[in-house]
């Protein structure tokens, strides 16, 4: 197909030749999939349905020269991460694209190859979508549907005073990778650039962790860190009507991130806490449940560290960051679109 534009294929050509082949066989629980006016899905009687959506816009969520294969994987990963944060099992998804005429067929094919790779890796089935022309930028929307036991969804609103706050994986890698790509934080070792930019382009949705926490009824509240640790912790605080204290000394940083912070100091530290797109799980558990956390670490093979605690609400819900006994004042808590 070379570098011909998608305009050569036409709307139904794009669906038939590029998107439909992502789903080569009927997914489990799919009564009607791609090709009808709506998909028809079988939700088992004993389960609740989780539904989430995330949009990615060229120039806002990814640069025009981003690798379409990785972008396809990321479009799914950010949605899978939201299902993970609820403790559910992702099952089905819809994919909607607004595509300008200038887009090449090979770009779209690579994108679809990335979507297919992620959907096979995480066992989710494409059941529909929408394909339209854009007069400017590429816009990608995924809606992810998942299943969870009845009334078992882990909300943001259950954090209790005295709870310990835990974070999976490491913090700030994605923000550092992006900053370097955008020409900020230029001084980095080549190995760090490749690790950090990979963490930016290819987040790992913590599905097994979310399900294990839910299964053990361990997390009182959970959120995935997409806007930044401080912003997303603030969301838990507001939903739960509590406040939180985070200790910088406890935060988990990768070796690459530690080198960036050593090089750039306070501004890099603030970026790690506020940059976002970590797609790690942040959750609150009872102070007596630390042993169970260790079991889950072994079960799912993802590191979990205690980063702070839940405190009384005070005047209003808020997050305090402490370092060496002092309170750090950080102006921006995370990413906002407007
Ligand atoms: N246009 C909208 N209409 C209805 N609900 C919306 C709309 N935009 C966002 N929401 C809802 O508001 C809540 C917060 O949305 P937000 O997009 O910040 O989710 P998030 O998981 O915190 O972030 P991310 O978008 O990075 O996944 C979610 O419950 C979402 O479904
Ligand atoms: C080119 C480019 N510039 C900036 C960013 C950073 N960025 C965009 S959206 C977002 C938060 C999550 O989005 P949402 O809340 O929409 O899920 C972040 C941190 C990027 N990824 N690419
Ligand atoms: Mg989320």
Residue runs with pLDDT of under 50 for 5 or more positions: none
**What gap, in angstroms, lies between the N and C termini?**
39 Å
Strand order across the biggest sheet? 8-10-7-11-9-12-13
CATH fold title of the largest domain: Phosphoribosyl-aminoimidazole Synthetase, Chain A, domain 2
CATH class of the largest domain: Alpha Beta
Shape: globular
- What is the assigned CATH homologous superfamily of the largest domain? PurM-like C-terminal domain
Beta-strand content estimate: 15-25%
Multimeric state of these chains?
A: single chain
CATH architecture of the largest domain: Alpha-Beta Complex
Structural class: alpha+beta
Give your account of this protein's structure.
- The chain has 338 residues and is of the alpha+beta class.
- The protein has 2 domains: 6-149, 60s Ribosomal Protein L30, Chain: A; 164-328, Phosphoribosyl-aminoimidazole Synthetase, Chain A, domain 2, CATH 3.90.650.10.
- The protein contains 10 helices and 13 strands.
- Strand 12 (319-323) and strand 13 form a beta hairpin.
- Helix 2 runs parallel beside helix 6 and helix 4 packs across helix 9.
- 47% of the residues are buried.
- Bound molecules: adenosine-5'-triphosphate, thiamin phosphate (TPS) and magnesium ion (MG).
- Residues 54, 60-63, 178, 226-227, 276-277, 335 line the site of thiamin phosphate.
- This is Thiamine-monophosphate kinase.
Describe the structure concisely:
Pathway: Cofactor biosynthesis; thiamine diphosphate biosynthesis; thiamine diphosphate from thiamine phosphate: step 1/1. With 338 residues, this protein is an alpha+beta fold.
């Amino acid at each position: 197909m070379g570098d011909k534009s998608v305009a050569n294929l036409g709307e139904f050509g794009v669906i038939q030749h590029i998107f439909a082949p992502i789903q080569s066989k009927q997914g489990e629980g799919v009564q009607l999939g791609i090709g009808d006016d709506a998909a028809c899905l079988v939700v088992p009687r004993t389960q609740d349905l989780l539904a989430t959506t995330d949009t990615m816009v060229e120039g806002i969520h990814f640069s025009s020269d981003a690798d379409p294969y990785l972008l396809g994987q990321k479009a799914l990963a950010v949605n899978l991460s939201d299902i993970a944060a609820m403790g559910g099992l992702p099952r089905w998804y819809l994919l909607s694209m607004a595509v300008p005429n200038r887009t090449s067929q090979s770009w779209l094919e690579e994108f679809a190859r990335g979507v297919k790779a992620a959907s096979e890796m995480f066992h989710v089935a494409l059941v529909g979508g929408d394909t339209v022309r854009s007069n400017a930028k590429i816009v990608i929307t995924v809606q992810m549907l998942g299943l969870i036991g009845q009334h078992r969804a882990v909300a943001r609103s259950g954090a209790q005073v005295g709870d310990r706050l835990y974070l999976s994986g490491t913090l700030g890698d994605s923000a550092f990778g992006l900053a370097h790509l955008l020409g900020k934080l230029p001084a980095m070792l080549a190995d760090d650039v490749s690790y950090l930019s990979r963490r930016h382009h290819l987040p790992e949705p913590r599905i097994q962790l979310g399900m294990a926490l839910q299964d053990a009824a361990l997390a009182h509240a959970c959120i995935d860190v997409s806007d930044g640790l401080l912003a997303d912790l603030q969301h838990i605080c507001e939903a739960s009507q509590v406040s939180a204290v985070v200790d910088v000394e406890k935060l988990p940083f990768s070796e690459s991130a530690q080198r960036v912070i050593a090089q750039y100091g306070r501004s890099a530290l603030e970026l790690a806490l506020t940059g976002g797109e970590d797609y790690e799980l942040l959750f609150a558990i009872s102070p007596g449940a630390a042993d169970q956390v260790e079991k889950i670490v072994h079960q799912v093979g993802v590191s979990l560290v205690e980063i702070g605690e839940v405190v009384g609400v005070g005047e209003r819900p808020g997050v305090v960051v402490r370092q060496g006994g002092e309170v750090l004042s950080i102006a921006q808590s995370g990413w906002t679109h407007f």
